[in-house]
C-alpha cells in the first residue's frame, strides 16, 4: 500500500498547500479516520521543526513529542481536532483547533491546559458486562459507571495521564459551542435553539454570537469549555 497521498485530494481540514507539490504523506491507521493529519505534516509543514520524514523519525524515537500525554513513534500517526501536541523539552504545548474555513490549526496553550483533552460523545453503548462505553469524535472509547449521566453530543474532558473524565459539558441551550466544520467552522457562540428534525433529516442548531450568530447542523457543533476563549471571545491564542 502506498505511503503517499495526492495533495489535491487531501481533506479540506488538512493544513497543507495543495499546489506546491504533487504528493504528501498519507495518514496511518488510528484516531480521527480520514480527517486525521499525519504527525509529520504538522512537524514539517506547519511548525517547521523538521525538514524531512527522517528527521521526524529521529525526534519521535527520542520520545520528545507527546500526543495526548503519550509518546508516539509513528510519524504517520493521525492528529485531529482537540488533540494535545506537547514538546516538553521546548516547553511548548498546542491544542488542535479548527480555524475559520475548517482547517486544523495549532493553538498554543499552557502546560496545565495541555494536561487534558476535550472529546465530543458520538455514541453511547452498553458493552458485555453491563459497562457503559462512550465513543468520542476521534474514535476512542471511555468506559463509565452505568448510572453516569452522559448523552450523545455532550462533551467531556479526559485527563491525559489518568485517562479519567475530569469535566462534563451537556449539550443544551445556553452552552458554549464552536463549529468544527461547514462554512462557520471556527466560530464560537452559545446555543440559542436546537431544532430536532423528525425522520432522517439532520437536527439544526442556532448559535448566538457577537457577530450575529449562525445556523448549522448538529453534527458540526461541539460544546466547549470557557477556557477555550479569551476575554474578547476569540479562540485561545
From TrEMBL:
<keyword id="KW-0689">Ribosomal protein</keyword>
<dbReference type="Pfam" id="PF08071">
    <property type="entry name" value="RS4NT"/>
</dbReference>
<feature type="domain" description="Small ribosomal subunit protein eS4 N-terminal">
    <location>
        <begin position="2"/>
        <end position="32"/>
    </location>
</feature>
<dbReference type="GO" id="GO:0022627">
    <property type="term" value="C:cytosolic small ribosomal subunit"/>
</dbReference>
<comment type="similarity">
    <text>Belongs to the eukaryotic ribosomal protein eS4 family.</text>
</comment>
<dbReference type="InterPro" id="IPR038237">
    <property type="entry name" value="Ribosomal_eS4_central_sf"/>
</dbReference>
<dbReference type="InterPro" id="IPR041982">
    <property type="entry name" value="Ribosomal_eS4_KOW"/>
</dbReference>
<dbReference type="GO" id="GO:0003735">
    <property type="term" value="F:structural constituent of ribosome"/>
</dbReference>
<keyword id="KW-0687">Ribonucleoprotein</keyword>
<dbReference type="InterPro" id="IPR013843">
    <property type="entry name" value="Ribosomal_eS4_N"/>
</dbReference>
<dbReference type="Pfam" id="PF00900">
    <property type="entry name" value="Ribosomal_S4e"/>
</dbReference>
<dbReference type="InterPro" id="IPR013845">
    <property type="entry name" value="Ribosomal_eS4_central_region"/>
</dbReference>
<dbReference type="InterPro" id="IPR018199">
    <property type="entry name" value="Ribosomal_eS4_N_CS"/>
</dbReference>
<dbReference type="InterPro" id="IPR036986">
    <property type="entry name" value="S4_RNA-bd_sf"/>
</dbReference>
<dbReference type="GO" id="GO:0019843">
    <property type="term" value="F:rRNA binding"/>
</dbReference>
<keyword id="KW-0699">rRNA-binding</keyword>
<dbReference type="InterPro" id="IPR014722">
    <property type="entry name" value="Rib_uL2_dom2"/>
</dbReference>
<protein>
    <recommendedName>
        <fullName>Small ribosomal subunit protein eS4</fullName>
    </recommendedName>
</protein>
<keyword id="KW-0694">RNA-binding</keyword>
<dbReference type="InterPro" id="IPR000876">
    <property type="entry name" value="Ribosomal_eS4"/>
</dbReference>
<feature type="domain" description="Small ribosomal subunit protein eS4 central region">
    <location>
        <begin position="91"/>
        <end position="165"/>
    </location>
</feature>
<dbReference type="GO" id="GO:0006412">
    <property type="term" value="P:translation"/>
</dbReference>
